[in-house]
Specification:
single chain; alpha+beta; Arc Repressor Mutant, subunit A; five-stranded antiparallel β-sheet; four-stranded antiparallel β-sheet; binds manganese (II) ion
Length: 299
C-alpha cells in the first residue's frame, strides 16, 4: 500500500506515462523507424525528470507485447500494421504502466474497439470487494461482443514499489479466481483482443532483460555490462539498446548479454507472440482502487 506522498508521486508518474504514450501515438506512422519513436519518447520522459519503469514497447501485428527496438534496428512501421505502444515512467521506485493501440491498416478496428471497450467496462467495475474473476468476465464479454478473442495467458496486475507485476493478477476472462480488490490497491488493467487463438508464447527475439542477482561472471566484457546494468537500472527492466552507447560493438554487447543470461544474472523478457499469428490489439490503464470505485492514474 502507498502513503499519501507516494500517491501524489504516483499521480505524476501516471500523468507522465500517459503523456509519453500520447507522444508516441503521434509519431507512429508508416515509414517511421521504431527506434526513432522509442528514443524520442524515452528522452522526453527523462528530460522531464522521470525515469523509465521499462523500455518503450512497440509491438506490431501478432507481437502482443515486449518488443522494443534492438541495437541498430532498421525496422519501420508499415501501412499494414497494428501497433501496441506500452510504457511507464518512474520516480523514486514508483512505476507507471499504460498502453494504447494504433491501427495503421484500418483493418482491425473491431479488435481495437474490443480492447478499449473492455478496459472501459473493467474500470467501471473496479471497487473494493469485486473479484478479479468478475473483472475478467466483463473484459472477455466486451472483446467477444466485437468479434475478437481475449488473450487468456496475458492480463493485468498489481503495481508495487519497484515491482511492476505484483499481486493480484487481473485475468482477461473469468478464470474463477476469487481474489478481492481492496481500497488503496494500485492495479494495471490490460485487455488484449486477437483474431487468433487467444494465447501468446515466447517469440524468437529478446531485447528486454532484468537483473535478478549476483552470479559468477568470468568474461570481463560481460562483467562490465553487468556493472552498468546494476548501476543504472537496478532491478528494473532495461533494453539492450540502452547499453549500446558504451559497448565496443553490437556483436560483443549481445555476446555479453547471452553470457549474463546463461550465468543467471539477468532474466529475459522475450517478445510475446500470438500462437495462431493472429493480430493483437491492447489497451491498458493504471488505477487506484478507492472507496466507491477507482481513479485512473494514467491520464
Ligand atoms: Mn502491465
Ligand atoms: Mn504495460
Amino acid at each position: 500500500m502507498y502513503n499519501d506522498e507516494e500517491k501524489r508521486t504516483l499521480e505524476g508518474v501516471g500523468a507522465m506515462s500517459y503523456k509519453a504514450i500520447q507522444m508516441a501515438r503521434g509519431l507512429v506512422k508508416p515509414g517511421v523507424r521504431l527506434v526513432d519513436v522509442a528514443e524520442k519518447v524515452e528522452k522526453f520522459v527523462m528530460d522531464n525528470g522521470f525515469g523509465l519503469a521499462f523500455p518503450l514497447n512497440l509491438s506490431v501485428n501478432s507481437e502482443a507485447a515486449h518488443y522494443t527496438p534492438s541495437v541498430e534496428d532498421e525496422r519501420a512501421f508499415s501501412e499494414n500494421d497494428i501497433v501496441k505502444i506500452d510504457f511507464g515512467a518512474e520516480k523514486d521506485g514508483l512505476l507507471g504502466d499504460c498502453a494504447v493501440c494504433i491501427d495503421l491498416s484500418g483493418h482491425y478496428s473491431s479488435l481495437v474497439e474490443g480492447a478499449e471497450a473492455a478496459l472501459a467496462v473493467a474500470i467501471s467495475r473496479v471497487r473494493p470487494g469485486v473479484t478479479t474473476g468478475e473483472i475478467g468476465r466483463e473484459i472477455a464479454k466486451a472483446i467477444e461482443d466485437k468479434g475478437g478473442r481475449p488473450i487468456r495467458n496475458l492480463g493485468g496486475h498489481g503495481v508495487g514499489k519497484h515491482d511492476l507485476h505484483s499481486e493480484p493478477f487481473i485475468p482477461n476472462y473469468d478464470d474463477d479466481s476469487k481474489n478481492v480488490l481492496e481500497e488503496g490497491m494500485v492495479i494495471a488493467i490490460e485487455p488484449f483482443a486477437t483474431d487468433g487463438k487467444g494465447l501468446v508464447t515466447d517469440g524468437d527475439s529478446c531485447e528486454i532483460y532484468q537483473y535478478v542477482g549476483p552470479a559468477q561472471i568470468r568474461q570481463p566484457a560481460a562483467r562490465q555490462v553487468l556493472e552498468e546494468v546494476t548501476a543504472k537500472y537496478g532491478s528494473e527492466p532495461f533494453a539492450v539498446r540502452w547499453l549500446a552507447r558504451s559497448a565496443q560493438s553490437k556483436f560483443s554487447l549481445y555476446a555479453a548479454i547471452r553470457e549474463l543470461e546463461r550465468a543467471g544474472a539477468i532474466e529475459p523478457h522475450p517478445t510475446l507472440v500470438e500462437i495462431g499469428r493472429g493480430h493483437v490489439a491492447q489497451a491498458e490503464a493504471m488505477v487506484i482502487v478507492e472507496k466507491d470505485g477507482c481513479k485512473v492514474l494514467t491520464k
